[in-house]
Design goal:
Blueprint lengths: L1 H21 L11 E4 L3 E3 L5 E11 L14 E9 L2 E8 L10 E4 L2 E9 L15 E7 L2
């Protein structure tokens, strides 16, 4: 019985440890696409810049297995930290001119949302936050 309890504690610790490690991505290179999962944070190599995929604010994209009149949109927020402080920025997958942003300038950096996955399949299956993947590009204009 003690071995079972010890094994369960070790397994739980390993899982928790994996979740903690997953919250931080390896440093990413400027001018190269990278992907963050929901809740994950990355630093930009050679820059005082950290980006965290903070929240999915909305995902009304038309599910792949449904016929819709409108493509819908997904809105996500990222927390960006640099030497001047911390700010929250939003991206929108539907690039309506003047309203929805897929590129945001933060100080000397340009951050672009390239993709948001997975795409919804049916309206009845919500996507867990941790399963989202935002593909981003950071450039220094």
């Amino acid at each position: 019985m003690r071995r079972l309890v010890a094994a369960a504690v070790l397994a739980a610790t390993a899982v928790a440890g994996g979740q903690t490690r997953a919250a931080h991505a390896d440093p990413v290179e400027p001018d190269r696409e990278f992907t963050l999962q929901g809740g994950q944070e990355a630093t930009v190599a050679g820059e005082d810049l950290r980006i965290r995929f903070a929240e999915v604010l909305e995902d009304s994209r038309c599910p792949a297995l449904v016929q819709c009149f409108w493509t819908g949109q997904a809105r996500i927020s990222m927390v960006v930290s640099d030497e001047s402080g911390q700010t929250t920025i939003e991206f929108n997958t539907n690039p309506a001119p003047g309203q929805n942003r897929q590129t945001v300038d933060v100080d000397d950096h340009r951050i672009e949302l390239r993709a948001l996955d997975p795409y919804p399949q049916t309206p009845d299956e919500p996507i867990p936050f941790e399963d989202y993947r935002a593909t981003l590009l950071v450039t220094i204009p």
